[in-house]
Amino acid sequence: MNPLIGVIANIDLNRYDMPATVVPLAYTTSLEKAGGQPLIFPLTLDETFLPVMADAVKGFLFIGGNDIDPGFYNEMPEKELGKVDKTLDMFQMAALKIAMAREKPVLGICRGIQIVNVALGGTLFQDIPSQFDPPVLNHMQDTISFETDHEVDIEPGSELHDLFGSHIRVNSRHHQSIKTLGKDLIITARAPDGVIEAVRHKTLPMELVQWHPELMMQKNNDMLPLFKMFVEKCRLR
Ligand SMILES: [Mn+2]
Questions:
Q1: Which residues are 200's β-sheet partners?
Q2: How far is ligand 1, taken at its centre, from the CA of residue 154, in Å?
Q3: Helix (H, G, I), strand (E, B) or coil at 214
Q4: 236 Cα: distance to centroid of ligand 1 (angstroms)
Q5: Separation of 11 CA from ligand 1 center, angstroms?
Q6: Hey, what CATH class is 4-235 in?
Q7: Cα of 44 from ligand 1 centre, angstroms
Q8: From ligand 1's centre to the CA of 197, what distance in Å?
Q9: What are phi and psi of 161, to 5 degrees?
Q10: Which of 86, 127, 157, 172 could pair with 139 in a Cys bridge, judged by C-beta atoms 3.0 to 4.6 Å apart?
Q11: Buried b (16+ CB within 10 A) or exposed e, 54-89
């Protein structure tokens, strides 16, 4: 049987004029293509359910979504900050802590890399264009990026380097990024302007990327090795 992988859902506050669980199909179909069986976990306020969720799956995917409440890294909101949802942030950070305690593989995408970084005590640029100095590439493309938008330089010695070599082109749909690193995270890739594009955990099986491999997967299989590596780690658990 293909390994069950918990997909930590986001919420959309105004879908159907009421809050709704949201997971774009691109994430679950990408896991399926890589041999995984996604299982969507909606936000719950009942944290006693989290250990039950964690025991049911081999690994966790943290997907893209809204900005993160800067209160979690002791900053006041800047005016360029997008929508935040403190309850969702807390739920996702609680889910991560249980995943880490059980040493389950984690793949984080876009908001996923950001929530993991904040959960581990790191900080974010609340808005790259207004806060990153010197000025940088356009990391927030206007359209959904099935195509690639900028290059990233990958650190030798990382699993990402084993998969893709020193340079790849990726898409870019984010206006936030890591400012200071969370505990035990190591940078594995940067954009040419210095923006952090990927990190891993020193000891735990966690791969975190700022780009959207699941959207690139709608166009070709260039990012299939990333999903396959994650699913294989889950299978071996
Ligand atoms: Mn980018």
A1: 186, 207
A2: 13
A3: helix
A4: 31
A5: 23
A6: alpha beta
A7: 31
A8: 6
A9: -65, -40
A10: 172
A11: beebbbbbbbbbbbbbbebbeeeeeeebeebbeebb
Q: How far is the CA of 142 from the centre of ligand 1 (A)?
A: 13
Distance 189 CA to ligand 1 centre (A): 11
Given a contact cutoff of 8 angstroms between Cβ atoms, the answer to whether 116 and 206 are in contact is yes
Between the CA of 179 and the centroid of ligand 1 the distance, in Å, is 14
C-alpha 115 – ligand 1 centre gap (Å): 16
Q: Would you state the structure tokens that stand for residue 183, as one six-digit string?
A: 């505990």
- Give, for 208, the enclosing helix (H) or strand (E): strand 206-209
CA–centroid distance, 131 to ligand 1, in Å, is 15
Spacing, Cα 233 to ligand 1 middle (Å): 26
CA atoms within 13 A on the CB side of 232: 6
Q: What is the pLDDT along the chain (237 residues), one digit of tens a residue?
A: 899 999 999 998 888 889 899 999 999 999 999 999 999 999 987 878 899 989 999 999 999 999 999 999 999 999 999 999 999 999 999 999 999 999 999 999 999 999 999 999 999 999 999 999 887 899 998 888 899 999 999 999 999 999 999 999 999 999 999 999 999 999 999 999 999 999 999 999 999 999 999 999 999 999 999 999 999 999 998
Rounded CA gap, 16 and 213, in Å?
28
Centre of ligand 1 to C-alpha 88, Å, is 24
| Centre of ligand 1 from the C-alpha of residue 108, in Å | 15
Tokens, residue 120: 């581990």
CB 117 within 8 A of CB 185: yes
